[in-house]
User: Fold this.
Amino acid sequence: MRADLARALILLLAATPLAHAGNWSVIHEESLLGFTATQTGSEFSGRFEDFDADMTFHADDLDASAFDVTVDVTSVDTGSADRDSTLADKPWFWFEEFPRARFETKRIEHKEGDSYEAVADLTIKSNTHEVTLPFTWTRQGDSARIEGKATAVMQGGLSMDRTRWEVGTGEWSSGDTVGRQVDVEVDLLLKHEG
Amino acid sequence: MRPSRAKKMRLRNTSSNWGTIAKAFHWLIALLIITNLGLGYWAEGLAVSPTKVEAFYWHKSIGLTVLWLALLRLLWRFTNPSPRLPSDMSGWERALAHTSHVLLYVLMIAMPLSGWVIHSAANFPLDLYGVFPVPDIIPASADESAVGDLAKAAHYWMFITICGLLALHVLGALKHHIVNRDTVLRRMLPFSRASDPIRGE
Assistant:
């Protein structure tokens, strides 16, 4: 009986960090997960309105730091109903089959000052490729506290070739009409939960 | 005699003939409009594809070109005399010619403008000739889909109208040439001259 109780306690303690989903939580109203791409040579930008970010970050313990972000790709908004409805189709994100994308870090390295690099697996349409996301993590001062809790700003970005993830297949894959390069921008406001 | 021939190439209109500039406007805009009518009609029927996106890129580029060329052309027209219509035309013929030409000018400007509204409502990016960013021309507060739908309907009906007007324009010119045997068609031809003898006179 006592052994069972101890085991249950251990399980509970072990499970606690997962239940908390990291020691930082994203303030969604103040955050952006966006991208910029090109169409007939001109830039347009979009964003994903819905994403779940499990963010664990300790500047002094990067081995214990990790980001696990699940993006609801069906929440994409490029400000154009025509374009957004096309993105839902099979050659692009194929919402029906692949409504989620995932960014899961494998390691986070310190560069200098507030600069870091996250090496992560990015999965879109069941294609997984390793990417490197350079980012800054800046602790905000006491005046920027939210609900009495410390805040931080995470900003980063990376360029990707969309065709590696089969986003824009077939006749779209040449990149002549819609460029293959997509610049992803991350700008998150986070609240310390730890 | 050679030097005097060169002088006959006039830039400005006279009371009996179109100058080189007016002719250049006419034929350049005619070419662009006919190309764009065909291109727009064809592209509208395509399924979403790179070809469709590219086709509309060119459709928009050509349409905006027509818009600013038409504005320059109007300016030129208002600062130049227009050649007189043949004196044997009846009142209703003059009225029809006048009205159809006014309508053509209106559509040369209104069609690209309505297309620009459709483009703005769709929120697609466009750099004219790959250089000049084209701004949106509908107010930020507008209900984009409602404004876009209205502009699409207008664009469609103007398409029907301009096709009819162009047919009338061509038939009218041919009637002047073949039936009336006057200079109305010939004087708009690229290399005709004011002093060229008129057939049958």
